[in-house]
Each structure stands twice: as structure tokens, then as C-alpha cells.
Automatic annotation (TrEMBL), chain A:
PANTHER family referenced in this protein's UniProt entry, alphabetically: LINEARMYCIN RESISTANCE ATP-BINDING PROTEIN LNRL (PTHR43582)
Chain ranges of the ABC transporter domain: 5-236
Superkingdom of origin organism: Bacteria
The organism's taxonomic lineage, starting at the top: Bacteria, Bacillati, Actinomycetota, Actinomycetes, Pseudonocardiales
Name of the protein described by the UniProt record: ATP-binding cassette domain-containing protein
Alphabetized InterPro entries for the sequence: AAA+_ATPase, ABC_transporter-like_ATP-bd, P-loop_NTPase
Alphabetical UniProt keywords: ATP-binding, Nucleotide-binding
Keyword S-adenosyl-L-methionine: no
Annotated organism of origin: Actinomycetospora endophytica
Residue segments, region Disordered: 242-268
MF terms in GO: ATP binding
Pfam families: ABC_tran
UniProtKB/TrEMBL annotation, chain B:
Name the record gives this protein: Transport permease protein
PANTHER family in the record: NODULATION PROTEIN J
Nucleotide-binding keyword on record: no
Transmembrane regions listed in the UniProt entry: 81-104, 136-156, 162-185, 247-269
Record family assignment: Belongs to the ABC-2 integral membrane protein family.
Membrane topology of the entry: Multi-pass membrane protein
InterPro entries the UniProt entry points to: ABC2_TM, ABC2_TM_bact-type, ABC_2_transport, Nod_factor_ABC_transporter
Record key words, sorted: Antibiotic resistance, Cell membrane, Membrane, Transmembrane, Transmembrane helix, Transport
Residues of the ABC transmembrane type-2 domain: 45-272
Cell location: Cell membrane; Membrane
Source organism, top-level taxon: Bacteria
Main location class: membrane
């Protein structure tokens, strides 16, 4: 079976600033794959190339065997994408938000209402469905975005830091939904995070990025065992990134602060 | 838990067909226009606040200048002459706002999400352009009602009204895409707000919205000739008030201008998304 997502020697630079270098990834069907790394590691850039938002040369990135450089539109049909920012439209109701994406993915008219209802239900939003998203909590907005991404029944769900800024209850709410959906549909999930305890709990395999390069890859257990008994994934992270969280974030810090602020403004 | 839609079978490569592309474009336009109307339904305050300015132009400027006969408009009362101009102006102000909206959508991740749907960029921009047209049209209905209350003698011919609606939509599509194009050039909301303010008033004053072309100084007449707003106003006047208008020319200019601007804005959209 073809890999749901595959990159070979992926390289991406913003003018002369290299964001991702020599990256090889191969996701297995049906797994939750975690892309880990400190701020500015290149996680979002990698995801933007895979989702066709940034250009890739032919032969470097495939989704379900389709080259993203050559079959952009078909690739998009197979993807469900939730960006790092909270991106639901606050001036529309939950149901309208999801229905828009059902239309944009050409879910047939006869099935549309049912598809929208069932994803809203699966995300625990049935009761809130007809309120505008401006009244939603951060956790609800995230679940709404999952509903938007899932209504087209994607083969690969791509989530950029799905739990950032959420409280512990909202976090586990989001993860529970992700696992339920995966159990039921068998879709592959590609997720980024810099929360190591989440990666340990929820990811089947992870790759650790630092300054655009892959530093380690494997199951969380493999990575921890390799470092020695009692090692946590946090230790693995520190071992491979070599320095503290704050130092490694320097390059990306300005942008990241801006993004965080925008997110805060939207949630607020 | 309810049953989720199952993933489709393995990817098949879509075949390109012109008919399929047009059908897709129409579906996307429908989806975006619907969202625009839903937003209006949830928040009607904007509809009201955006009515204040055209209402003032008509009620204060229009009635005063009508009374003192300061601007010679032949047998047409000045208020009647002015009303189509104000209609076009209110549509212009709405459409020019769309570039700012697109930048906001980029910052909020909404644009990225839209771009990761199977929607060609041109379809996305065209859909936005027509969504702006729909919003402008809803606003136009309000302005028409105000004008009628002030005694403007609009046509009751349904075909002419439909024609006027099409003109408003085309004009809005052009200015919406002009605004998205500028957004794609300057990339930041603050700069675009500045530019938006700097160009909307000149576009309005360098058009035939307020006064007949013959009254303009020569240089202004030249600008007026390349200003799509003037063609929009000319067509609206011809259709709604019945003044002599070059409807054929107006229609051609508006269609071509909108088509060109949609292409330019579509070409700049990826730059905007990356920025
Ligand atoms: N549009 C851009 N223009 C210029 N540089 C960029 C741009 N986007 C990202 N970068 C840079 O590329 C590098 C990788 O950024 P990226 O957003 O992929 O990191 P990340 O791992 O997602 O970080 P975070 O955890 O903060 O989201 C960073 O150094 C960042 O500053
Ligand atoms: Mg990121």
C-alpha cells in the first residue's frame, strides 16, 4: 500500500533562510504521526508544503502516491487541514462553518446535511451548532475546525498544533475526538506539537525536527529507550535539540509571538 | 457516536474538462455568496451603519443641490441624477473593503484553509468577487428604498432593474478584485487601509457620480474615461433614470475590467497566502 504521506529530501527556504532541509518522512496508513520540534523548527513549513500551500519540486512530496507538485487539486481532495491559528469564521454559526467546507469539497447535495450533522455530532457540537462561533470556547473552536476538516471524509488529517492554547480538559477533548475518528475511519493523522507528554500519549510514531532537520524518528518508546532507562520524551527532546527551549526558538520568535497574538485576539 | 462519512476509495486522477471547470466555478460562487448572506443575517448592524453615509449624501447633499440648481443636469432633477452615483459609491465602499478582509483571513488561517480545498484560485477569487457583489446588492436595495422615499423617480421595468443589479455586481467584482490585488502587493493590513482610503475618494470624485462629465476640467475628463466607476454610474443612470447612456460600451468595459482584475488578483493570491 502507498504511504499516505511521503517526503524525500524535502528542502524549503524563505529567501535565504532555510526552514526545512533534507527531510525524509514516510507515514504508515492509519497511524497518528507526530512532527515534534521547538518553535521555528520547521513543522508548519513542512505541513504547508504537504498541503500544497507552499510549492515543492516534482518528485519530492506525495500524498497517497500523488505528487503534490503535479496533482495539486486531487491532493487537496484527500486532505483535511486544521491550521495553527484558530480559523473558524466567528460570524457564522458552527453548522454554517461546516456546511461551507462540505460545499467546497463537493459533498453531494443529498448527503450534505447528514454529513454536516454527523461530524458536528462526532465533535460534540450538536447543541452549539446554531450559535455563531464567536460564542465558542477555544476548545469548541478547535473541535469545530476538526468538523470542518472531517466533513469531506479525508484520507489524511493534517493538524498543526491542535491543542496549543487549550486547557487540559479541552486538550483531552480534542485528542479523544481525533482517536475516535481514526478508529472509525482508519484515516492517517499527521500532527505537530511541542508538548512532549501529548506526543508520548497520543502518537504512534514521531519525528523530531530541529532547525529544519530531522534529528530522530521512531515510536516514543523506541526514542526513550535509546536514551536509557527512565528517560522521558522531554529528555529525548532536550538531547536532540541540544539546548533549552527558549534558545532554540530565537529565529522564529517574532513571527511566533505575532501568530500567538492573532490567535489570542480571535479567541478573545 | 454517529457514523462518520467514510473516506473515498484510493485517489483517482481527475480529468480536466471545460464544462466541469465551469460547473465547479458556479458551485464555488454559490457557496461563497451563500456564506456572505449568512454573515449579513447574523450581523445586520453593518447593513444599517453602511446606510448612513449614502442616506446623508442623498438627503443632505442631494436635496440641497437639487433646490439651488447648482449643477445643471438638464431636465433631470439633480437628486435623480445623483441617486445612481450614490448607489455606485456605496457598492464601491463595500467592495474596497474586501482586500482588508482577505488579509485578515490570511492572518487568521482562513485563507490557507480555503486554499487547501479543491478550488482553483481563480474560482476562489471569482467567488469572493461575486460575494462582494451580493453584499453590495443587498446594500443597494436599501439605498434604492431611501432614494424612493426622497422622491427619486426610478424605473419600474423589471428588466432594467435586473440589468442595474448586474451592473452593481460587475462593478463590485472589479473593485473587490482591485482591492485584493492591492492586498497582494502591499501584504499588510495597515498599509492597505491607508491605500484604500487614499484611492476610494479620488475614484469617486474623478467620476461622473456627482456631476455631468461636461462640467469637468479636461484632465479630470481623461481620468473619468479610464475610471470603471464612471461606466458603472453611466449604466445605472441609463437603466434606472432613463438618461441617455452608452449601455453597450458600459457593459463591455465592466465585463472586461472585472475579468482582467479577477485574473490579476488570482495571480497575486499565492503571494498573499505565503507572505
Ligand atoms: N513566511 C515566512 N517568511 C520568512 N520566514 C519564515 C516564514 N514562515 C516561517 N519562517 C521561518 O522558517 C522557520 C520555520 O518556521 P515554522 O513556522 O515552520 O516553524 P514551526 O516549527 O512551525 O514553529 P512553531 O512551533 O513556532 O509554530 C522559522 O525560522 C521561521 O522564522
Ligand atoms: Mg508552527
Amino acid at each position: 500500500m502507498t504511504d499516505p504521506v511521503r517526503t524525500q529530501g524535502l528542502h524549503y527556504a524563505f529567501s535565504d533562510h532555510v526552514a526545512v532541509a533534507e527531510l525524509d518522512l514516510a507515514l504508515h496508513p492509519g497511524e497518528v504521526f507526530g512532527l515534534l520540534g521547538p518553535n521555528g523548527a520547521g513543522k508548519t513549513t513542512t505541513i504547508r508544503v504537504i498541503t500544497t500551500l507552499l510549492p515543492a519540486p516534482p518528485g519530492v512530496v506525495t500524498v497517497a502516491g500523488l505528487d503534490v507538485a503535479r496533482h495539486r487539486r486531487q491532493v487537496r481532495r484527500l486532505l483535511g487541514y486544521v491550521p495553527q491559528q484558530l480559523s473558524a469564521d466567528a460570524s457564522l454559526s458552527g453548522r454554517e462553518n461546516v456546511a461551507l467546507f462540505a460545499r467546497l469539497f463537493d459533498v453531494p447535495r443529498r448527503e450534505r446535511a447528514d454529513a454536516v450533522d454527523s461530524v458536528l455530532d462526532a465533535m460534540g457540537l450538536t447543541e452549539a451548532a446554531d450559535r455563531t462561533a464567536s460564542t465558542y470556547s477555544g476548545g469548541m473552536v478547535r473541535r469545530l475546525e476538526l468538523a470542518q476538516a472531517l466533513v469531506s471524509a479525508p484520507q489524511v488529517l493534517v493538524l498543526d498544533e491542535p491543542t496549543v492554547g487549550l486547557d487540559p480538559v479541552a486538550r483531552s477533548g480534542v485528542w479523544d475526538r481525533i482517536h475516535e475518528v481514526r478508529r472509525e475511519t482508519g484515516m492517517t493523522v499527521l500532527v505537530t506539537t511541542h508538548a512532549m507528554e501529548e506526543a508520548e500519549l497520543h502518537c504512534d510514531r514521531v519525528a523530531l525536527l530541529h532547525r529544519g532537520r530531522k534529528r530522530a524518528e521512531g515510536t516514543p518508546t523506541e526514542l526513550m529507550d535509546a536514551l536509557g532507562p527512565d528517560a522521558t520524551l522531554d529528555d529525548v527532546f532536550r538531547h536532540h535539540t541540544g539546548d533549552t527551549l527558549t534558545q532554540s526558538g530565537q529565529e522564529g520568535s517574532m513571527r511566533d509571538v505575532r501568530t500567538a497574538r492573532r490567535t489570542a485576539r480571535r479567541v478573545g | 457516536m454517529s457514523v462518520l462519512p467514510a473516506a473515498p476509495p484510493a485517489a483517482s486522477v481527475e480529468r480536466f474538462s471545460p464544462v466541469g471547470e465551469v460547473a465547479l466555478l458556479v458551485r464555488r460562487m454559490g457557496a461563497m455568496c451563500l456564506v456572505e448572506l449568512q454573515k449579513l443575517r447574523h450581523d445586520r448592524t453593518e447593513l444599517v451603519t453602511r446606510t448612513v453615509q449614502p442616506a446623508l449624501w442623498l438627503a443632505v447633499f442631494g436635496t440641497t443641490f437639487s433646490r439651488i440648481h447648482a449643477i445643471p443636469t438638464g431636465s433631470t432633477p439633480y437628486l435623480d441624477f445623483l441617486a445612481p452615483g450614490i448607489l455606485a459609491q456605496s457598492a464601491l465602499f463595500i467592495a474596497i473593503f474586501y482586500g482588508i478582509q482577505v488579509i485578515w483571513e490570511r492572518d487568521a488561517g482562513v485563507l490557507a484553509k480555503l486554499l487547501v480545498t479543491p478550488t482553483p484560485r481563480t474560482a476562489l477569487v471569482t467567488a469572493k468577487a461575486f460575494a462582494a457583489g451580493i453584499r453590495a446588492l443587498v446594500q443597494a436595495v436599501v439605498v434604492v428604498v431611501i432614494a424612493l422615499l426622497l422622491g427619486v423617480g426610478f424605473t419600474a421595468n423589471p428588466f432594467k432593474l435586473l440589468g442595474a443589479a448586474a451592473v452593481v455586481v460587475l462593478g463590485s467584482a472589479f473593485f473587490c478584485c482591485l482591492s485584493i490585488t492591492l492586498a497582494g502587493v502591499v501584504l499588510s493590513r495597515d498599509r492597505l487601509m491607508g491605500i484604500g482610503q487614499a484611492i476610494t475618494m479620488p475614484l469617486f470624485f474623478a467620476s461622473n457620480a456627482l456631476y455631468p462629465v461636461d462640467l469637468m476640467p479636461g484632465w479630470l475628463q481623461v481620468i473619468n474615461k479610464v475610471n470603471p466607476l464612471s461606466y458603472e454610474v453611466d449604466a445605472l443612470r441609463g437603466l434606472l433614470i432613463g438618461t441617455p447612456a452608452r449601455l453597450g460600451l458600459d457593459a463591455v468595459v465592466l465585463v472586461v475590467a472585472a475579468a482582467v482584475m479577477i485574473s490579476v488578483a488570482s495571480a497575486l493570491l499565492p503571494r498573499l497566502a505565503r507572505g
